[in-house]
C-alpha cells in the first residue's frame, strides 16, 4: 500500500497505513457528523474524527450477526501502536466467540464487588471497634428528649469517668459504677464480664451497682433495636443471674416516723438554720413527694390562685400529664413556701439562688440527731403513706397524691379524682399531723405572715 504524501487529501472510504502525519491531517468535513480513518493493518480499528476536532479510537466487528463497537480512548493520549494492540486483543476474543462487553461487565462487577467488600469490611471493623462509652453517649443523646432531669443525671453519672475536683471538700470524684465498661468494645460485653464487674462493685457500692445494672440493661435493649449496634450485642449481658446474685437483693426499707415522734421531729427541723432546708424536709412529710421531685419544685409550679403544686413526675403516675401531676397546696405547706425568700427559679434553692438545695440528707441527719429519730429522705415520703392510715384515708387518694401507679383496674379506669376532692383529704391529713406535732396554726391567716408555735 502506497504511503500518501503529507499534502494529499484523505480518502475516508479506503483503509490506510496509520501514521502520525495522517492522523494529524484528518479532519471532519463541514456538514458531516463524523468521519472514520480506517486502519489497513488492523482489521476493525478506526479513528473517529468529529467536527469539533476530537479524535477517538474505536474497534468495530460483528459477532453472531450483531455489531459490536468498543471505545479505545482518545488520540494522541492512546498511541497508534497501543490502539492496534487493543484492537488485536479484541479481535482475538471475538473470533473465539467471547463477547468483550461481557468480559468488561464481569470485570466491572468484580471491581464493584471487591470495593463493596472492602467498604463493608471497613465499616464492620469500625463497628467492632466501637466502645461502650461511645455507644452510651449516642444512647443518652437519643433518649434525652424522653427523660426527666433526674433520670438523665443518673445515666450520665453512671458512666462518669471520675477524677474531677470535688465541688465540695477536697479530693477528686469517684468513677461511676459503669465507668469500668466505657473503654471496652461493645462486642466484648458478655455475661462473664458483667459477673466480674458485679463481684467487684458488690464490695463497695452494691446499691448503686444494682441501679447501674438496671440502666445497663435498658441500654443494651436499646442497642438491639438499632441496626448499627444490633449485631454487636448477641445477647443482653445485663440479664445475668450471676451478676444479680453477686449484687444481692435490695432490702426493703422500713424507716418512717411514728406518730409520737412528730413533736420532736418538727421542733428539730424548725430549728435548722436554713429556712429552705426546714421547709423542704417538712414538705416531704406533708406532701409525700419523692425527694427529687420536691427538690426540683420551681416557683412557676406553685399556683396560689387555685392552691395547687405541679410536681414534675413520671408519665405513668396516677393523674400524671406530660410528666407532671398536680397535688393540693395545703394551708401549712402554703405558709412554708410563702415564708421563703424568692431567689432564682427553685422554691427550695441554695443560698445563692442558682440551684436547688444541695445535700438535704445532711440537714435531715442533723435534725434526726437532735430529735433522736432515724429516718431518711425517702422515709419521710414513706411516713406520709404510713401516717395516713391513722385517718383511714382512701388508699387511692394517698396513691394519687404520692404519684403511685394505679393498683387495680377500677382505680385505673373508673376513678377520676379532681384536685378539690384530693384537697378535702389532704388538708384533713395536714391538720392531723400538725395536731400530733403540737404545732398551733391558723389555716385562715395570710400565708407567709404566720408564726407557728409549739
From TrEMBL:
<dbReference type="InterPro" id="IPR050808">
    <property type="entry name" value="Phage_Integrase"/>
</dbReference>
<keyword id="KW-0229">DNA integration</keyword>
<dbReference type="Pfam" id="PF13356">
    <property type="entry name" value="Arm-DNA-bind_3"/>
</dbReference>
<comment type="similarity">
    <text>Belongs to the 'phage' integrase family.</text>
</comment>
<dbReference type="GO" id="GO:0015074">
    <property type="term" value="P:DNA integration"/>
</dbReference>
<dbReference type="InterPro" id="IPR002104">
    <property type="entry name" value="Integrase_catalytic"/>
</dbReference>
<dbReference type="InterPro" id="IPR038488">
    <property type="entry name" value="Integrase_DNA-bd_sf"/>
</dbReference>
<keyword id="KW-0233">DNA recombination</keyword>
<dbReference type="GO" id="GO:0003677">
    <property type="term" value="F:DNA binding"/>
</dbReference>
<dbReference type="Pfam" id="PF00589">
    <property type="entry name" value="Phage_integrase"/>
</dbReference>
<dbReference type="InterPro" id="IPR025166">
    <property type="entry name" value="Integrase_DNA_bind_dom"/>
</dbReference>
<feature type="domain" description="Tyr recombinase">
    <location>
        <begin position="252"/>
        <end position="429"/>
    </location>
</feature>
<dbReference type="InterPro" id="IPR011010">
    <property type="entry name" value="DNA_brk_join_enz"/>
</dbReference>
<dbReference type="GO" id="GO:0006310">
    <property type="term" value="P:DNA recombination"/>
</dbReference>
<dbReference type="InterPro" id="IPR013762">
    <property type="entry name" value="Integrase-like_cat_sf"/>
</dbReference>
<protein>
    <submittedName>
        <fullName>Integrase family protein</fullName>
    </submittedName>
</protein>
